[in-house]
Amino acid sequence: MSQLETAMAILLKTFDRYAGAEGNKATLNKAELKTMLEKELPSFLKDSKNPDECDKLMKALDHNGDSEVDFSEFVVLVAAIMCACHGRTKK
């Protein structure tokens, strides 16, 4: 596989690892999202002093209002983080 295909496969596998730990296997609930962020993006929450940060993130990502994050909503998170980081590293 190409590097991009490998990266896409890793994103799929990562989402699936956390989705459905409790309940629906196709979505992340708030607890699953928090666990994923803590394990896969530890620096994302590290600087946050606000314990409600995960609630705010969940609300921002949950475009369809079902109180869960589906794969499409997860991809929005990943894309937003990648856009924020783009240009911060030397090319």
Automatic annotation (TrEMBL):
<protein>
    <recommendedName>
        <fullName>EF-hand domain-containing protein</fullName>
    </recommendedName>
</protein>
<dbReference type="InterPro" id="IPR034325">
    <property type="entry name" value="S-100_dom"/>
</dbReference>
<keyword id="KW-0677">Repeat</keyword>
<dbReference type="InterPro" id="IPR011992">
    <property type="entry name" value="EF-hand-dom_pair"/>
</dbReference>
<feature type="domain" description="EF-hand">
    <location>
        <begin position="49"/>
        <end position="84"/>
    </location>
</feature>
<keyword id="KW-0479">Metal-binding</keyword>
<dbReference type="InterPro" id="IPR013787">
    <property type="entry name" value="S100_Ca-bd_sub"/>
</dbReference>
<dbReference type="InterPro" id="IPR001751">
    <property type="entry name" value="S100/CaBP7/8-like_CS"/>
</dbReference>
<dbReference type="Pfam" id="PF01023">
    <property type="entry name" value="S_100"/>
</dbReference>
<keyword id="KW-0106">Calcium</keyword>
<dbReference type="GO" id="GO:0046872">
    <property type="term" value="F:metal ion binding"/>
</dbReference>
<dbReference type="InterPro" id="IPR002048">
    <property type="entry name" value="EF_hand_dom"/>
</dbReference>
